[in-house]
Amino acid sequence: MSNKESILQTLEVLYPINSAESWDRVGLVIDSKNEIYTNILLTVDVTKNVIEEAKNIGANLVISHHPLWVEEATTHSKMISDEALKANIDIYVIHTNGDKAVDGVNDCLTRALGLKNVLNFTDTDLARIGNFETPIETMQVVELLSRALPNTQGAIQVSGPLDAKISRVGVCAGSGGSLIEHAHKEKVDAYITSDLKHHMVLENKGLGGPILISLPHWASEYLWLPELNKQLMKLLTQKNVELKIFTYKTSTDPWDFSLGSKI
């Protein structure tokens, strides 16, 4: 068995492709027909700079959280796939199957907050619910997040009173606006996610919904990469597969500047 087969089997054990949402595009989305993987690069997004980094470190497998595309290729995703194929670099995606998995993207965010008794939302495994051991104020939650998240120009935003006491928390790393109604049903004190739309937040506030805390999308998901690195190293070592796994640490957040309140 080539190390490619061992690595792909390991990824499937950790994050089964069939657990992804039906619309999602996960697994080996770019296959350059490599039989041997040299090194691996982990990233939240695949960009031209990520492909350049892979070449520089001798990695011919990039594992990304975000797909290059879902339904059809865009001009940018086509450019990236062409760059990867030209450099003989495979791209493997772990997206909604990574959000759902135990020790996956959402679990890493709950751990950064120190939440206890963590469970899936009642009606979906795309989000988590947990509790602080003792209630803390909204601003303390923001301070926790500010310390835990990697630096980025994206802002942490709050809709709701900064001095409210928070115990029960809903968490969905990445774009979780579609799950606000689920957060209402779970009767959480706060719901933490990213990419919330204006009217959605306004309606939630008008209905007396939970406090909303919006995070920079990239930062909310980056916390998972070190955990993925550990998971892969452990299983590949057991299989006697020797290679290096690197993490792309440069922010791929597309925003270059923001101006707003500071803690």
Short description:
By secondary structure, this protein is of the alpha/beta class. Helix content is 36%, strand content 25%. The longest helix has 15 residues.
Question: Care to describe what's here?
Answer:
With 263 residues, the protein is α/β, with parallel strands linked by helices. It has 2 domains: 3-98, NIF3 (NGG1p interacting factor 3)-like (Udp-n-acetylmuramoylalanyl-d-glutamate--2,6- Diaminopimelate Ligase, Chain: A, domain 1, 3-Layer(aba) Sandwich), CATH 3.40.1390; 102-216, NIF3 (NGG1p interacting factor 3)-like (Udp-n-acetylmuramoylalanyl-d-glutamate--2,6- Diaminopimelate Ligase, Chain: A, domain 1, 3-Layer(aba) Sandwich), CATH 3.40.1390.30. 36% of the residues lie in helices and 25% in strands. It is built from 10 helices and 11 strands. The strands form 2 sheets. A 6-stranded mixed beta sheet has the order 5-6-8-9-10-7. Strands 1-4-3-2-11 form a 5-stranded mixed beta sheet, with helices on both faces. Strand 5 (116-121) and strand 6 (124-137) form a beta hairpin. Helix 1 packs across helix 10. The radius of gyration is 19 Å and the shape is globular. The termini are far apart. The mean pLDDT is 94.
